[in-house]
Specification:
Layout lengths: L9 E13 L2 E12 L5 E6 L4 H15 L5 E4 L6 E4 L5 E3 L1 H10 L2 E4 L9 H15 L8 H18 L9 H8 L25 E4 L2 E4 L9
Length: about 220
């Protein structure tokens, strides 16, 4: 049964792994896909990892491009959002992810395990974007240039693609849906705070790398 979504009601989110040539090297990227469920307007953004910081950044840019925030977001049970999957719809939501949803004032809605059809629009978007956008992309000097290109290509496709259910293009229906979106606040501060032990040589370890810190932070030998 097809699902009906009112204007401003929901968006769907998913990640994909794809490749691009950035800075002269072919690199594997994590691509965030965010799609409005009513108008089907969508945005892609590329990142090196699927960390909290990058997840939060993807939401901010999507809401900025869409012109507002829908009432709820539909997700799978990704580790950056769900700490524990319970019975039925019971979820232990990650505290940082919940802080982000509270900041933008939308309700997170998580799919049942192995039920990708519950966010079928964005699942289809992942498949379609590979031949519409990601295959045969030009080379880019850096990730910022790639994301500018992705945004421009997404918006161009809104104007080129018929909505399929409602009259007009995706862009036409988005223009009507935009007025139903909640106002966009300032960007959520997606920093992650961690406690680290400083070595006597003024180093800390983070994600398999070592970084120097002021000598006053060091533990005496």
């Amino acid at each position: 049964m097809p699902l009906h979504f009112d204007p401003g009601e929901a968006f769907q989110f998913d990640w994909s792994e794809d490749f691009a040539v950035v800075g002269g090297e072919r690199v594997k990227l994590q691509v965030a896909h965010i799609k409005l469920s009513h108008s089907r307007a969508f945005l892609l953004r590329a990142y090196p990892l699927q960390t909290h910081e990058m997840l939060f950044d993807a939401h901010w840019h999507a809401f900025r491009v869409f012109g507002g925030v829908p009432e709820r977001g539909i997700y799978d049970n990704m580790r950056t959002a769900v700490d524990l999957v319970g019975r039925g719809k019971a979820r232990q939501v990650n505290i940082r992810f919940l802080a982000m949803t509270n900041h933008y004032v939308f309700e997170p809605d998580f799919c049942n395990p192995a039920a990708g059809w519950e966010k079928g629009q964005v699942e289809k978007n992942v498949r379609d974007s590979r031949h519409q956008m990601l295959q045969g992309m030009p080379d880019f000097p850096d990730l910022a240039a790639l994301n500018v290109w992705l945004k421009q290509r997404c918006i161009a496709l809104w104007h080129e693609t018929a909505h399929g259910t409602l009259p007009g293009t995706i862009a036409d229906v988005w223009a009507e849906e935009r007025v139903a979106l909640m106002p966009l606040p300032v960007a959520f501060d997606g920093f992650i705070e961690l406690s680290k032990r400083v070595s006597p040589t003024c180093l800390i370890s983070f994600e398999r790398n070592r970084y120097s810190v002021p000598a006053s932070f060091a533990i005496p030998a």
